[in-house]
């Protein structure tokens, strides 16, 4: 199997990847959450009400004794019907380009590797990212960016473009619905090779017809998440 430059840079530095959220590989568990059409439990009534949607996620985590829910890369999701933000003419945006980590409001988020601040913004629309931070990385000469979305507004305080953020630094928290685009509390984590001139924002969901183009620019973050969960025990 051929690996790309992004994968090679992460594999070669696997043991250096720090945590993104607190997690103990020996005692904590992750629950994959499916938000495609096969998940018939999520009714229109639940999706239309953020509190009901949050309750559904929390009940799933509690039932499986899971610390976080996780998943979503390259997933064709039906949940975006809840917001006109994803409606774009004849073909709506439904394909998810990052990985979500679902958990409690104010869950701490950390920087997994030395980085600088590319940009940040409050994308304050229903269904959007809410508070958003984008960090730039250079690992073994391979440059890329990571978008952290659905954060608390407090996460944006004190940031400036170009600021150095050492690996292991706490950078943010999961935002409440009023600050995260009116979603159940979670982190949207997305890798972006070329920001294409954008600042503080980049599509986290695309049209299915543009799938190949966007996936080429937004490689699978799961390799980083595998490292961050396996390497770093909660202090």
Structure notes:
By secondary structure, the protein is an alpha+beta fold. It has one domain: Glucose Permease (Domain IIA) (Distorted Sandwich), CATH 2.70.70.10. 19% of the residues lie in helices and 26% in strands. The protein has 5 helices and 13 strands. The strands form 3 sheets. Strands 1-2-5-12-9-8-7-10 form an 8-stranded mixed β-sheet. Strands 3-4-13 form a 3-stranded antiparallel β-sheet, with no helix packed on it. It has a two-stranded antiparallel ribbon with strand order 6-11. The chain starts with a helix and ends with a helix. The mean pLDDT is 92.
> Remind me, CATH topology?
Glucose Permease (Domain IIA)
Helix/strand order, N-terminal first: HEHHEEEEEEEEEEEEHH
Largest sheet: 8 strands, mixed
* Number of DSSP-assigned strands: 13
Number of domains: 1
**Would you state the CATH class?**
Mainly Beta
Can you tell me the residue ranges where pLDDT is under 50 for at least 5 consecutive residues? none
Please describe the topology of this protein.
Blueprint: H1 5-12, E1 30-32, H2 44-48, H3 50-63, E2 68-71, E3 75-76, E4 95-96, E5 99-102, E6 108-110, E7 115-123, E8 130-139, E9 142-151, E10 164-165, E11 170-173, E12 186-192, E13 205-206, H4 211-217, H5 222-231
Parallel strand pairs: 1-2
Antiparallel strand pairs: 2-5, 3-4, 4-13, 5-12, 6-11, 7-8, 7-10, 8-9, 9-12
């Amino acid at each position: 199997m051929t690996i790309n430059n992004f994968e090679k840079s992460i594999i070669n530095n696997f043991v250096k990847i720090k945590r993104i959220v607190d997690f103990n590989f020996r005692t904590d568990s992750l629950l994959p959450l499916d938000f495609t059409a096969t998940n018939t439990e999520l009714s229109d009534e639940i999706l239309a009400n953020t509190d009901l949607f949050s309750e559904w996620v929390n009940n799933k985590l509690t039932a499986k004794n899971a610390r976080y829910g996780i998943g979503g890369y390259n997933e064709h999701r039906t949940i975006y019907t809840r917001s006109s933000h994803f409606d774009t003419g004849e073909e709506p945006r439904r394909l998810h380009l990052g990985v979500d980590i679902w958990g409690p409001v104010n869950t701490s988020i950390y920087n997994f590797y030395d980085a600088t601040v590319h940009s940040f913004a409050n994308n304050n629309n229903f269904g959007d990212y809410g508070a958003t931070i984008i960090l730039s990385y250079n690992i073994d000469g391979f440059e890329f960016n990571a978008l952290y979305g659905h954060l608390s507004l407090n996460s944006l305080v004190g940031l400036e473009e170009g600021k150095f953020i050492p690996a292991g630094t706490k950078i943010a928290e999961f935002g409440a619905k009023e600050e995260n685009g009116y979603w159940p509390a979670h982190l949207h984590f997305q890798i972006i090779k070329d920001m294409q001139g954008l600042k503080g924002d980049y599509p986290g969901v695309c049209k299915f017809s543009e799938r190949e183009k966007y996936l080429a620019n937004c490689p699978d973050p799961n390799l980083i998440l595998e490292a961050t969960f396996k390497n770093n025990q909660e202090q």
